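TODO from last week: model glucan endo-1,3-beta-D-glucosidase.
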Amino acid sequence: MALLLLLLLAVSVVNADEDSYIGVNIGTDLSDMPHPTQVVALLKAQQIRHVRLYNADTAMLLALANTGIKVIVSVPNEQLLGIGQSNSTAANWVSRNVVAHYPATNITAISVGSEILTTLPNAAPVLVNALKFIHSALLASNLDRQIKVSTPLSTSIILDSFPPSQAFFNRSWNPVLVPMLNFLQSTGSFLMLNIYPYYDYMQSNGVIPLDYALFRPLTPNKEAVDANTLLHYSNVFDAMVDATYFAMGFLNFTNIPVLVTESGWPSKGDSNEPDATLENANTYNSNLIRHVLNKTGTPKHPGISVSTYIYELYNEDTKAGPVSEKNWGLFDANGVPIYILHLTGSGMVLANDTTNQTYCTAKDGADPKMLQAALDWACGPGKVDCSPLSQGKPCYEPDNVVAHATYAFDTYYHKMGKTPDTCDFNGVAAVTTTDPSHGSCIFPGSLGKNGTFVNVTAPSMNSTTSGSPAHNLYGGDFTSFITIVRVLIWSAVFL
Protein backbone atom coordinates (compact mmCIF):
# COMPACT_ATOMS: atom_id res chain seq x y z
CA MET A 1 0.00 0.00 0.00
CA ALA A 2 1.62 3.19 -1.11
CA LEU A 3 -0.71 5.93 0.19
CA LEU A 4 1.48 6.70 3.17
CA LEU A 5 4.52 4.56 2.43
CA LEU A 6 6.54 7.71 2.80
CA LEU A 7 5.65 7.84 6.46
CA LEU A 8 8.43 5.35 7.07
CA LEU A 9 11.06 7.38 5.26
CA ALA A 10 13.56 9.28 7.34
CA VAL A 11 15.31 12.60 7.27
CA SER A 12 16.19 14.73 10.29
CA VAL A 13 14.11 15.95 13.19
CA VAL A 14 14.57 18.85 15.55
CA ASN A 15 17.59 17.10 17.02
CA ALA A 16 20.19 16.58 14.35
CA ASP A 17 20.86 12.98 15.41
CA GLU A 18 17.25 11.87 15.02
CA ASP A 19 15.05 11.22 12.01
CA SER A 20 12.02 13.33 11.26
CA TYR A 21 8.79 11.56 10.55
CA ILE A 22 5.10 11.89 9.85
CA GLY A 23 2.70 10.16 12.22
CA VAL A 24 -1.08 10.04 12.55
CA ASN A 25 -3.54 10.63 15.38
CA ILE A 26 -6.16 7.95 15.97
CA GLY A 27 -9.49 9.30 17.20
CA THR A 28 -12.33 6.96 18.12
CA ASP A 29 -15.52 9.03 17.73
CA LEU A 30 -16.85 6.76 14.98
CA SER A 31 -20.26 5.11 14.88
CA ASP A 32 -18.57 2.00 13.46
CA MET A 33 -15.08 2.13 14.98
CA PRO A 34 -12.87 -0.58 13.42
CA HIS A 35 -11.57 -3.28 15.73
CA PRO A 36 -8.03 -2.57 16.99
CA THR A 37 -6.67 -5.41 14.85
CA GLN A 38 -8.23 -3.77 11.79
CA VAL A 39 -6.72 -0.42 12.75
CA VAL A 40 -3.28 -2.00 13.05
CA ALA A 41 -3.75 -3.83 9.73
CA LEU A 42 -4.41 -0.46 8.07
CA LEU A 43 -1.35 1.09 9.74
CA LYS A 44 0.82 -1.77 8.51
CA ALA A 45 -0.61 -1.66 5.00
CA GLN A 46 0.10 2.07 4.82
CA GLN A 47 3.56 1.77 6.39
CA ILE A 48 2.56 4.16 9.18
CA ARG A 49 5.23 3.82 11.86
CA HIS A 50 4.19 6.53 14.35
CA VAL A 51 0.79 6.97 15.99
CA ARG A 52 -0.70 9.02 18.77
CA LEU A 53 -3.62 7.71 20.84
CA TYR A 54 -5.95 9.98 22.78
CA ASN A 55 -6.01 7.52 25.66
CA ALA A 56 -4.25 4.29 26.62
CA ASP A 57 -6.84 1.80 25.42
CA THR A 58 -5.74 -1.70 26.44
CA ALA A 59 -7.09 -3.46 23.33
CA MET A 60 -5.36 -0.95 21.07
CA LEU A 61 -2.05 -1.25 22.93
CA LEU A 62 -2.24 -5.04 22.74
CA ALA A 63 -2.96 -4.91 19.00
CA LEU A 64 0.07 -2.64 18.52
CA ALA A 65 2.35 -5.03 20.41
CA ASN A 66 5.27 -6.51 18.46
CA THR A 67 4.58 -4.32 15.41
CA GLY A 68 7.45 -1.89 15.98
CA ILE A 69 5.02 1.01 15.54
CA LYS A 70 6.01 3.88 17.84
CA VAL A 71 3.17 5.00 20.07
CA ILE A 72 2.32 8.14 22.03
CA VAL A 73 -0.25 7.33 24.70
CA SER A 74 -2.30 10.03 26.40
CA VAL A 75 -3.67 10.89 29.80
CA PRO A 76 -7.21 12.10 28.91
CA ASN A 77 -8.11 15.57 30.15
CA GLU A 78 -10.74 14.18 32.51
CA GLN A 79 -8.06 12.20 34.38
CA LEU A 80 -5.60 15.06 34.71
CA LEU A 81 -6.88 16.50 37.99
CA GLY A 82 -6.61 13.15 39.77
CA ILE A 83 -3.10 12.49 38.46
CA GLY A 84 -1.90 16.04 39.13
CA GLN A 85 -3.04 15.82 42.74
CA SER A 86 -1.73 12.36 43.60
CA ASN A 87 1.68 10.82 43.00
CA SER A 88 0.23 7.35 43.66
CA THR A 89 -2.57 7.86 41.14
CA ALA A 90 0.04 8.80 38.54
CA ALA A 91 2.15 5.77 39.46
CA ASN A 92 -0.86 3.47 39.10
CA TRP A 93 -1.69 5.00 35.71
CA VAL A 94 1.85 4.42 34.44
CA SER A 95 1.93 0.87 35.84
CA ARG A 96 -1.38 -0.07 34.22
CA ASN A 97 -1.08 1.75 30.90
CA VAL A 98 2.64 1.83 30.17
CA VAL A 99 4.71 -0.65 32.17
CA ALA A 100 2.19 -3.44 31.53
CA HIS A 101 2.66 -3.05 27.76
CA TYR A 102 6.28 -1.96 27.34
CA PRO A 103 8.49 -2.98 25.53
CA ALA A 104 6.23 -5.25 23.42
CA THR A 105 4.28 -2.12 22.55
CA ASN A 106 6.80 0.52 21.54
CA ILE A 107 5.58 3.43 23.68
CA THR A 108 7.86 6.43 23.12
CA ALA A 109 6.02 9.29 24.83
CA ILE A 110 3.15 10.18 27.12
CA SER A 111 0.93 13.11 26.26
CA VAL A 112 -0.43 14.46 29.54
CA GLY A 113 -3.77 16.03 28.68
CA SER A 114 -4.28 18.18 25.58
CA GLU A 115 -4.47 21.97 25.30
CA ILE A 116 -5.16 22.18 29.05
CA LEU A 117 -4.47 25.91 29.33
CA THR A 118 -7.18 26.76 26.79
CA THR A 119 -9.71 23.93 27.18
CA LEU A 120 -9.49 23.01 30.88
CA PRO A 121 -7.92 26.03 32.62
CA ASN A 122 -9.12 24.93 36.05
CA ALA A 123 -6.69 22.01 35.80
CA ALA A 124 -3.77 24.22 34.77
CA PRO A 125 -2.44 24.66 38.35
CA VAL A 126 -1.78 20.90 38.61
CA LEU A 127 -0.47 20.39 35.06
CA VAL A 128 3.22 20.60 35.95
CA ASN A 129 2.71 18.30 38.94
CA ALA A 130 1.02 15.80 36.63
CA LEU A 131 4.03 15.90 34.29
CA LYS A 132 6.43 15.44 37.19
CA PHE A 133 4.42 12.63 38.81
CA ILE A 134 4.19 10.71 35.53
CA HIS A 135 7.90 11.18 34.95
CA SER A 136 8.70 10.02 38.50
CA ALA A 137 6.74 6.83 37.86
CA LEU A 138 8.74 6.23 34.68
CA LEU A 139 11.95 6.92 36.58
CA ALA A 140 10.98 4.33 39.20
CA SER A 141 10.47 1.78 36.41
CA ASN A 142 13.75 2.81 34.74
CA LEU A 143 11.85 3.97 31.63
CA ASP A 144 12.50 7.70 31.85
CA ARG A 145 15.14 7.59 29.10
CA GLN A 146 12.98 5.61 26.69
CA ILE A 147 9.68 7.45 27.20
CA LYS A 148 9.33 11.24 27.14
CA VAL A 149 6.61 13.20 28.92
CA SER A 150 5.02 16.39 27.62
CA THR A 151 1.67 18.11 27.05
CA PRO A 152 0.26 19.55 23.80
CA LEU A 153 -0.30 23.31 23.69
CA SER A 154 -2.59 25.27 21.41
CA THR A 155 -0.94 27.97 19.30
CA SER A 156 -3.62 30.34 20.61
CA ILE A 157 -1.48 30.93 23.74
CA ILE A 158 1.15 32.54 21.51
CA LEU A 159 0.48 36.26 21.09
CA ASP A 160 1.71 38.48 18.24
CA SER A 161 2.68 35.36 16.29
CA PHE A 162 3.66 37.42 13.26
CA PRO A 163 6.31 38.48 12.80
CA PRO A 164 7.63 35.36 14.57
CA SER A 165 10.55 37.26 16.10
CA GLN A 166 8.09 39.29 18.20
CA ALA A 167 6.01 36.35 19.40
CA PHE A 168 5.55 35.67 23.10
CA PHE A 169 3.39 33.40 25.24
CA ASN A 170 0.33 34.86 26.92
CA ARG A 171 2.01 36.18 30.08
CA SER A 172 -0.89 35.21 32.29
CA TRP A 173 0.21 31.59 31.79
CA ASN A 174 3.86 32.18 32.72
CA PRO A 175 3.38 30.70 36.22
CA VAL A 176 2.57 27.41 34.48
CA LEU A 177 4.68 27.73 31.34
CA VAL A 178 8.01 28.58 32.99
CA PRO A 179 8.09 25.52 35.29
CA MET A 180 6.70 23.40 32.45
CA LEU A 181 9.51 24.48 30.12
CA ASN A 182 12.01 23.89 32.92
CA PHE A 183 10.66 20.36 33.22
CA LEU A 184 10.86 19.72 29.46
CA GLN A 185 14.42 21.04 29.32
CA SER A 186 15.64 19.09 32.35
CA THR A 187 14.14 15.80 31.09
CA GLY A 188 15.27 16.21 27.49
CA SER A 189 11.68 16.25 26.28
CA PHE A 190 10.01 18.30 23.53
CA LEU A 191 7.31 20.94 23.41
CA MET A 192 4.15 19.38 21.95
CA LEU A 193 2.25 21.83 19.77
CA ASN A 194 -1.03 21.62 17.85
CA ILE A 195 -0.88 23.74 14.67
CA TYR A 196 -4.00 24.34 12.58
CA PRO A 197 -3.41 26.76 9.67
CA TYR A 198 -7.03 26.07 8.64
CA TYR A 199 -8.31 27.90 11.71
CA ASP A 200 -5.70 30.64 11.41
CA TYR A 201 -6.85 31.19 7.83
CA MET A 202 -10.57 31.08 8.73
CA GLN A 203 -10.16 33.55 11.59
CA SER A 204 -7.95 35.99 9.68
CA ASN A 205 -10.85 37.51 7.71
CA GLY A 206 -8.87 37.45 4.49
CA VAL A 207 -5.56 38.68 5.92
CA ILE A 208 -3.97 35.23 5.46
CA PRO A 209 -4.06 34.10 1.79
CA LEU A 210 -5.31 30.56 1.17
CA ASP A 211 -2.11 29.65 -0.72
CA TYR A 212 -0.05 30.73 2.32
CA ALA A 213 -2.10 28.43 4.57
CA LEU A 214 -1.90 25.46 2.17
CA PHE A 215 1.90 25.44 1.63
CA ARG A 216 1.37 26.31 -2.04
CA PRO A 217 4.50 27.75 -3.69
CA LEU A 218 4.68 31.53 -3.50
CA THR A 219 6.79 33.96 -5.48
CA PRO A 220 9.32 35.81 -3.26
CA ASN A 221 7.31 39.04 -3.45
CA LYS A 222 4.27 37.25 -1.99
CA GLU A 223 6.13 35.69 0.93
CA ALA A 224 5.70 37.20 4.39
CA VAL A 225 8.87 38.90 5.65
CA ASP A 226 9.86 39.26 9.29
CA ALA A 227 11.17 42.82 9.36
CA ASN A 228 13.35 42.11 12.41
CA THR A 229 15.16 39.06 11.03
CA LEU A 230 14.51 39.56 7.29
CA LEU A 231 13.49 35.89 7.17
CA HIS A 232 10.93 35.02 4.48
CA TYR A 233 7.93 32.84 5.33
CA SER A 234 6.01 30.98 2.64
CA ASN A 235 3.49 29.20 4.88
CA VAL A 236 1.60 29.51 8.15
CA PHE A 237 3.02 26.26 9.57
CA ASP A 238 6.66 27.44 9.54
CA ALA A 239 5.68 30.84 10.89
CA MET A 240 3.91 29.22 13.88
CA VAL A 241 6.79 26.85 14.60
CA ASP A 242 9.29 29.72 14.56
CA ALA A 243 6.96 31.90 16.62
CA THR A 244 7.02 29.12 19.22
CA TYR A 245 10.82 28.99 19.19
CA PHE A 246 10.99 32.77 19.61
CA ALA A 247 8.37 32.69 22.40
CA MET A 248 10.41 30.08 24.27
CA GLY A 249 13.54 32.14 23.67
CA PHE A 250 11.80 35.15 25.19
CA LEU A 251 11.59 33.08 28.40
CA ASN A 252 15.27 32.05 28.01
CA PHE A 253 14.62 28.49 26.78
CA THR A 254 16.53 27.94 23.56
CA ASN A 255 17.14 24.20 23.29
CA ILE A 256 13.70 22.58 23.57
CA PRO A 257 12.65 20.99 20.27
CA VAL A 258 9.09 21.30 18.94
CA LEU A 259 7.00 18.23 18.11
CA VAL A 260 3.77 19.00 16.24
CA THR A 261 1.19 16.64 17.73
CA GLU A 262 -1.71 17.73 15.51
CA SER A 263 -2.03 19.35 12.10
CA GLY A 264 -4.30 18.82 9.15
CA TRP A 265 -7.14 20.22 7.05
CA PRO A 266 -10.82 19.19 6.87
CA SER A 267 -12.13 17.70 3.61
CA LYS A 268 -15.73 18.83 4.10
CA GLY A 269 -17.49 21.64 5.94
CA ASP A 270 -20.70 23.58 6.49
CA SER A 271 -21.88 26.23 4.04
CA ASN A 272 -19.89 28.82 5.99
CA GLU A 273 -16.71 26.76 5.57
CA PRO A 274 -16.21 26.89 1.79
CA ASP A 275 -12.51 26.08 1.98
CA ALA A 276 -12.99 22.77 3.79
CA THR A 277 -12.75 20.73 0.58
CA LEU A 278 -11.23 17.47 -0.59
CA GLU A 279 -8.78 19.31 -2.81
CA ASN A 280 -7.60 21.68 -0.06
CA ALA A 281 -7.25 18.84 2.47
CA ASN A 282 -5.28 16.88 -0.11
CA THR A 283 -3.09 19.87 -0.93
CA TYR A 284 -2.35 20.72 2.70
CA ASN A 285 -1.53 17.22 3.88
CA SER A 286 0.46 16.33 0.75
CA ASN A 287 2.54 19.50 1.07
CA LEU A 288 2.93 19.03 4.82
CA ILE A 289 4.26 15.49 4.35
CA ARG A 290 6.73 16.63 1.70
CA HIS A 291 7.78 19.59 3.83
CA VAL A 292 8.55 17.45 6.88
CA LEU A 293 10.24 14.59 5.07
CA ASN A 294 12.28 16.69 2.65
CA LYS A 295 14.25 18.22 5.54
CA THR A 296 13.16 21.71 4.57
CA GLY A 297 13.11 23.00 8.13
CA THR A 298 11.90 26.49 8.99
CA PRO A 299 13.45 29.87 8.14
CA LYS A 300 14.81 30.12 11.72
CA HIS A 301 16.09 26.52 11.68
CA PRO A 302 16.68 25.53 8.04
CA GLY A 303 17.36 21.85 7.51
CA ILE A 304 15.93 20.88 10.89
CA SER A 305 12.49 19.41 10.29
CA VAL A 306 9.68 19.25 12.81
CA SER A 307 8.12 15.81 13.08
CA THR A 308 4.36 16.05 12.78
CA TYR A 309 1.28 13.93 13.49
CA ILE A 310 -1.51 14.39 10.97
CA TYR A 311 -4.96 14.89 12.39
CA GLU A 312 -6.23 12.24 11.73
CA LEU A 313 -6.46 8.59 10.60
CA TYR A 314 -10.26 8.27 10.37
CA ASN A 315 -13.15 10.63 9.77
CA GLU A 316 -14.96 10.80 13.12
CA ASP A 317 -18.65 10.90 12.19
CA THR A 318 -19.93 11.18 15.77
CA LYS A 319 -17.71 14.14 16.69
CA ALA A 320 -19.69 17.10 18.03
CA GLY A 321 -19.60 20.46 16.29
CA PRO A 322 -19.75 21.63 12.67
CA VAL A 323 -19.45 19.30 9.68
CA SER A 324 -15.73 20.05 9.42
CA GLU A 325 -15.12 18.47 12.83
CA LYS A 326 -16.19 15.11 11.42
CA ASN A 327 -14.03 15.29 8.29
CA TRP A 328 -10.34 15.56 9.12
CA GLY A 329 -9.56 11.91 8.37
CA LEU A 330 -7.38 10.30 5.74
CA PHE A 331 -9.64 7.22 5.68
CA ASP A 332 -13.24 6.23 6.34
CA ALA A 333 -14.15 3.52 8.84
CA ASN A 334 -13.66 0.82 6.19
CA GLY A 335 -10.08 1.91 5.55
CA VAL A 336 -10.94 3.46 2.18
CA PRO A 337 -8.96 6.67 1.44
CA ILE A 338 -11.00 9.88 1.60
CA TYR A 339 -8.68 11.23 -1.11
CA ILE A 340 -5.47 10.19 -2.82
CA LEU A 341 -2.55 12.30 -1.63
CA HIS A 342 -0.59 14.28 -4.22
CA LEU A 343 2.88 12.96 -3.50
CA THR A 344 4.65 12.77 -6.85
CA GLY A 345 7.82 14.73 -7.43
CA SER A 346 8.85 14.83 -3.79
CA GLY A 347 12.20 13.11 -3.74
CA MET A 348 12.01 9.82 -1.86
CA VAL A 349 8.26 10.13 -1.50
CA LEU A 350 6.40 7.69 -3.70
CA ALA A 351 3.46 8.46 -5.94
CA ASN A 352 0.51 6.76 -4.34
CA ASP A 353 -2.67 5.21 -5.67
CA THR A 354 -4.45 3.13 -3.09
CA THR A 355 -7.52 2.92 -5.30
CA ASN A 356 -5.58 0.21 -7.13
CA GLN A 357 -5.21 -1.60 -3.84
CA THR A 358 -8.62 -1.82 -2.25
CA TYR A 359 -10.45 -5.12 -2.01
CA CYS A 360 -13.95 -6.42 -1.31
CA THR A 361 -14.12 -9.18 1.30
CA ALA A 362 -16.75 -11.12 3.23
CA LYS A 363 -17.49 -9.55 6.61
CA ASP A 364 -16.44 -11.42 9.74
CA GLY A 365 -19.42 -13.07 11.38
CA ALA A 366 -21.67 -12.76 8.32
CA ASP A 367 -24.56 -15.26 8.08
CA PRO A 368 -23.23 -18.29 6.12
CA LYS A 369 -26.58 -18.69 4.30
CA MET A 370 -26.46 -15.07 3.19
CA LEU A 371 -22.84 -15.49 2.09
CA GLN A 372 -23.75 -18.60 0.11
CA ALA A 373 -26.65 -16.79 -1.57
CA ALA A 374 -24.36 -13.87 -2.46
CA LEU A 375 -21.68 -16.26 -3.74
CA ASP A 376 -24.25 -18.06 -5.92
CA TRP A 377 -25.41 -14.74 -7.35
CA ALA A 378 -21.88 -13.48 -8.06
CA CYS A 379 -20.88 -16.69 -9.84
CA GLY A 380 -24.20 -16.83 -11.70
CA PRO A 381 -26.11 -13.69 -12.67
CA GLY A 382 -23.18 -11.53 -11.54
CA LYS A 383 -21.07 -13.14 -14.29
CA VAL A 384 -17.97 -13.57 -12.16
CA ASP A 385 -15.51 -16.16 -13.46
CA CYS A 386 -15.46 -18.48 -10.44
CA SER A 387 -13.44 -21.24 -12.11
CA PRO A 388 -10.41 -20.54 -9.83
CA LEU A 389 -12.62 -21.78 -6.95
CA SER A 390 -12.99 -25.24 -8.49
CA GLN A 391 -11.27 -28.21 -6.86
CA GLY A 392 -7.62 -28.36 -7.84
CA LYS A 393 -7.59 -24.68 -8.87
CA PRO A 394 -5.48 -21.95 -7.10
CA CYS A 395 -8.32 -20.49 -4.98
CA TYR A 396 -10.13 -23.72 -3.99
CA GLU A 397 -8.37 -23.84 -0.63
CA PRO A 398 -9.51 -23.00 1.97
CA ASP A 399 -12.72 -24.72 0.94
CA ASN A 400 -15.25 -22.65 2.87
CA VAL A 401 -17.96 -20.17 2.01
CA VAL A 402 -16.13 -17.17 3.53
CA ALA A 403 -12.98 -17.66 1.43
CA HIS A 404 -14.90 -18.46 -1.76
CA ALA A 405 -17.33 -15.57 -1.28
CA THR A 406 -14.42 -13.17 -0.70
CA TYR A 407 -12.85 -14.17 -4.01
CA ALA A 408 -16.16 -13.80 -5.87
CA PHE A 409 -17.00 -10.47 -4.17
CA ASP A 410 -13.59 -8.98 -4.91
CA THR A 411 -13.66 -10.09 -8.54
CA TYR A 412 -17.09 -8.53 -9.03
CA TYR A 413 -16.02 -5.35 -7.22
CA HIS A 414 -13.04 -4.87 -9.52
CA LYS A 415 -15.03 -5.79 -12.63
CA MET A 416 -17.55 -3.08 -11.79
CA GLY A 417 -14.91 -0.38 -11.33
CA LYS A 418 -14.59 -0.55 -7.53
CA THR A 419 -17.53 1.71 -6.76
CA PRO A 420 -18.56 1.35 -3.09
CA ASP A 421 -22.07 0.11 -3.93
CA THR A 422 -20.62 -2.92 -5.73
CA CYS A 423 -19.13 -4.19 -2.47
CA ASP A 424 -22.15 -4.61 -0.25
CA PHE A 425 -24.01 -7.81 -1.18
CA ASN A 426 -26.82 -6.99 1.20
CA GLY A 427 -24.47 -6.15 4.05
CA VAL A 428 -22.24 -9.24 4.05
CA ALA A 429 -19.26 -7.59 2.29
CA ALA A 430 -17.02 -4.60 2.97
CA VAL A 431 -14.14 -2.73 1.30
CA THR A 432 -10.70 -3.18 2.86
CA THR A 433 -7.11 -2.22 2.08
CA THR A 434 -5.82 -5.61 3.24
CA ASP A 435 -4.91 -7.86 0.32
CA PRO A 436 -6.78 -11.19 0.76
CA SER A 437 -4.48 -13.01 -1.68
CA HIS A 438 -2.85 -16.16 -0.34
CA GLY A 439 -0.39 -18.64 -1.78
CA SER A 440 -0.96 -18.94 -5.53
CA CYS A 441 -4.45 -17.43 -5.21
CA ILE A 442 -3.86 -13.86 -6.40
CA PHE A 443 -6.88 -11.58 -6.11
CA PRO A 444 -7.86 -8.90 -8.66
CA GLY A 445 -5.99 -5.65 -7.97
CA SER A 446 -3.25 -7.43 -6.04
CA LEU A 447 0.40 -6.90 -6.81
CA GLY A 448 1.38 -10.30 -8.15
CA LYS A 449 4.78 -11.94 -7.83
CA ASN A 450 5.98 -10.14 -10.95
CA GLY A 451 5.17 -6.76 -9.40
CA THR A 452 2.28 -5.93 -11.72
CA PHE A 453 -1.35 -5.47 -10.89
CA VAL A 454 -3.80 -8.26 -11.55
CA ASN A 455 -6.80 -6.61 -13.17
CA VAL A 456 -10.29 -7.58 -14.26
CA THR A 457 -11.84 -6.02 -17.33
CA ALA A 458 -15.06 -4.18 -16.64
CA PRO A 459 -18.06 -5.00 -18.83
CA SER A 460 -18.63 -2.80 -21.85
CA MET A 461 -21.11 0.00 -21.26
CA ASN A 462 -22.08 -0.24 -24.93
CA SER A 463 -23.31 -3.81 -24.66
CA THR A 464 -26.79 -4.26 -26.15
CA THR A 465 -27.44 -7.50 -24.32
CA SER A 466 -28.39 -7.05 -20.72
CA GLY A 467 -26.67 -4.10 -19.05
CA SER A 468 -24.34 -4.48 -16.06
CA PRO A 469 -24.28 -7.73 -14.06
CA ALA A 470 -25.83 -5.98 -11.08
CA HIS A 471 -29.08 -5.62 -13.01
CA ASN A 472 -29.34 -8.93 -14.84
CA LEU A 473 -31.51 -10.99 -12.53
CA TYR A 474 -35.20 -10.82 -13.37
CA GLY A 475 -34.77 -7.16 -14.28
CA GLY A 476 -33.54 -6.42 -10.73
CA ASP A 477 -30.29 -6.28 -8.78
CA PHE A 478 -28.64 -8.35 -6.04
CA THR A 479 -30.94 -6.88 -3.38
CA SER A 480 -33.95 -8.17 -5.33
CA PHE A 481 -32.28 -11.55 -5.61
CA ILE A 482 -31.55 -11.78 -1.91
CA THR A 483 -35.15 -10.85 -1.14
CA ILE A 484 -36.28 -13.78 -3.28
CA VAL A 485 -33.86 -16.08 -1.44
CA ARG A 486 -35.22 -14.91 1.92
CA VAL A 487 -38.80 -15.59 0.77
CA LEU A 488 -37.81 -19.10 -0.34
CA ILE A 489 -36.09 -19.78 3.01
CA TRP A 490 -39.10 -18.42 4.89
CA SER A 491 -41.43 -20.59 2.82
CA ALA A 492 -39.34 -23.70 3.47
CA VAL A 493 -39.47 -23.08 7.21
CA PHE A 494 -43.03 -21.98 7.73
CA LEU A 495 -45.11 -23.52 4.93
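Done. The first helix runs from residue 36 to 45.
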